[in-house]
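Translate structure to sequence.
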């Protein structure tokens, strides 16, 4: 009998790549995905839409969530549904708490009430650490959390309520905090896809060769989304429930500022002389200047290692937006 794999947020960036990964395995898995009947965009999963069992659900509604889980009866859960774009969180803090915290409680409560032993993966964010001083790097699971935006606060709440349900009721919660992961399908409201989209628009003759950017000097360690979803899958089988794991590339050749990423994308363009300037509308009230992780605990417990280069992240992201611009779907 096939193992039932539930992926919330399956139509999004990470969820769709995770579905691709699970469906590429040996066929023992039935992929179940949640969608909102009136809001979900299907572009990211169009190529696998017929291979997914779909259930309409609003995860912020406990009744809707309970009914969905009664149908899904999952053997393993990847909770990828989230409000993940940082900038709107200042203006919509309650929406972020409803989606990132309340929805998680609804799922956890079903697992508790039904005495489920299903592994429940909560993918946290390096953003939870906030403004870490240079001398406190690299970040470890013991690093003090210093969040500087509402999104980060809601992700901390999500993570900690998962820990509470594990300690209180023995729920098999798998806790990870992922550092920056990029690649095709990420919305252009985020830094690297926004730069790539504008480069593609310039190449298509649809905008002047002057890119608008926000603050671009923050430094990150970058991982390809395909490496990240493999890490999530491995985490669900090898990580110890309740323990916290940091996930991401940490080799020197994966650590860059957004300025460097922008300049590399411009260098990949077929158009010469592209420039960029700061536009105040893209500058956030607070910045997170550096997120560099020590992921040794995760690598030691799972054997996972990232394989895809930062240059591939950039080239695949640029090609993705070139195709979207060509098709008129950007």
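Result:
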């Amino acid at each position: 009998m096939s193992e039932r794999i539930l992926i919330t947020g399956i139509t999004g960036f990470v969820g769709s790549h995770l579905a691709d990964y699970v469906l590429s395995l040996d066929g023992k898995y039935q992929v179940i995905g949640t969608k909102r009947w009136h809001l979900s965009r299907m572009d990211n999963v169009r190529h696998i839409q017929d291979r997914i069992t779909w259930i309409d659900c609003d995860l912020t509604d406990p009744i809707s969530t309970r009914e969905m889980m009664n149908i899904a009866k999952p053997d393993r859960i990847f909770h990828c549904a989230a409000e993940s774009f940082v900038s709107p969180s200042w203006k919509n803090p309650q929406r972020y708490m409803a989606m990132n915290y309340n929805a998680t409680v609804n799922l956890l409560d079903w697992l508790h009430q039904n005495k489920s032993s299903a592994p429940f993966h909560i993918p946290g964010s390096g953003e939870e650490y906030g403004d870490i001083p240079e001398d406190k790097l690299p970040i470890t699971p013991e690093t003090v959390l210093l969040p500087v935006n509402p999104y980060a606060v809601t992700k901390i709440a999500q993570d900690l309520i998962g820990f509470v349900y594990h300690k209180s009721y023995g729920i098999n919660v798998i806790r990870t905090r992922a550092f920056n992961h990029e690649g095709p399908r990420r919305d252009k409201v985020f830094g690297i896809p926004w730069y790539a989209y504008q480069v593609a628009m310039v190449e298509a003759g649809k905008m002047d060769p002057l890119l608008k950017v926000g603050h671009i000097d923050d430094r990150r360690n970058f991982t390809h989304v395909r490496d990240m979803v493999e890490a999530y899958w491995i985490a669900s089988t090898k990580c110890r429930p309740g323990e916290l794991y940091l996930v991401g590339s940490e080799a020197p050749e994966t650590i860059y500022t957004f300025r460097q990423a922008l300049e590399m994308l411009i260098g990949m363009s077929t158009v010469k002389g592209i420039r960029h300037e700061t536009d105040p509308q893209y500058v956030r009230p607070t910045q997170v200047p550096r997120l560099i992780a020590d992921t040794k605990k995760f690598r030691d417990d799972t054997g996972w290692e990232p394989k895809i280069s930062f240059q591939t992240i950039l080239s695949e992201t640029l090609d993705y937006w070139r195709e979207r611009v060509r098709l008129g779907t950007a």
